[in-house]
């Protein structure tokens, strides 16, 4: 992934999050405060806009800029987590003009986990993203990875929530899909679609 590709990917995510805004709002309304769709569409729009005209060729610097813009635009819990992921990718990839896709997503995952302090299996974004990162590192195609992420999102039904408003529901949380994992699935869907057009 080079700087031009990261810009294109952020623009693709912004479009997809806007397209799926109502779906995310609906998912979040069951367990949260219904702002997830707006947070993701506004956050990724801000990230894409912040780097669209940049002539920076350093992938890390560009990812960090995008993360900072997202953090400013959507300072909610999920907005901060996504921004932290991008900013960590920025720190890890700084100085590189070309980075492996798997390294980018792994650094994003690590940034989210470090900020949110959750663990896999606790019904969060991580449960959608970790299988995708593992798939990419194992050499799976973007399309295969997106399918794995979507299955992982669907697999959050049955998990016991340990964080956020959903955790208040206790055992009843097992019947619900996790909105955070839905975001991870959308990220990988957008990634696969973007790579498929290249």
Describe the structure.
The chain is mainly α and 198 residues long. The protein has a single domain (3-197), classed as Alpha Horseshoe (Serine Threonine Protein Phosphatase 5, Tetratricopeptide repeat), CATH 1.25.40. The chain has helices at 3-19, 21-31, 36-52, 59-73, 77-93, 101-116, 125-137, 142-154, 164-167, 179-196. Helix 1 (3-19) packs parallel to helix 4. The chain is globular.
Which secondary structure elements does this structure contain, and how are they paired or packed?
Layout: H1 3-19, H2 21-31, H3 36-52, H4 59-73, H5 77-93, H6 101-116, H7 125-137, H8 142-154, H9 164-167, H10 179-196
Helix pairs in contact: 1-3, 1-4, 1-10, 2-3, 3-4, 4-5, 5-6, 6-7, 7-8, 7-10, 8-10
């Amino acid at each position: 992934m080079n700087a031009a590709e990261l810009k294109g990917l952020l623009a693709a995510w912004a479009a997809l999050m806007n397209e799926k805004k109502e779906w995310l709002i609906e998912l979040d309304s069951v367990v949260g405060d219904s702002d997830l769709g707006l947070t993701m569409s506004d956050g990724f729009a801000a990230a894409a806009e912040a780097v669209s005209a940049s002539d920076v060729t350093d992938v890390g610097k560009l990812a960090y800029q995008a993360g900072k813009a997202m953090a400013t635009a959507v300072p909610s819990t999920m907005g901060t987590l996504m921004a932290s992921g991008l900013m960590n990718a920025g720190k890890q990839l700084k100085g590189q003009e070309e980075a492996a896709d798997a390294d980018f997503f792994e650094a994003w995952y690590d940034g989210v986990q470090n900020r949110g302090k959750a663990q896999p299996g606790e019904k969060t974004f991580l449960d959608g993203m970790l299988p995708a990162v593992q798939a990419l590192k194992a050499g799976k195609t973007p399309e295969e990875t997106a399918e794995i992420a979507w299955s992982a999102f669907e697999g959050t039904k049955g998990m016991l929530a340990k964080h956020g408003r959903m955790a208040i529901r206790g055992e009843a949380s097992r019947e619900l899909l996790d909105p955070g994992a839905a975001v991870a699935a959308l990220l990988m869907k957008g990634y696969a679609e973007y790579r498929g057009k290249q």
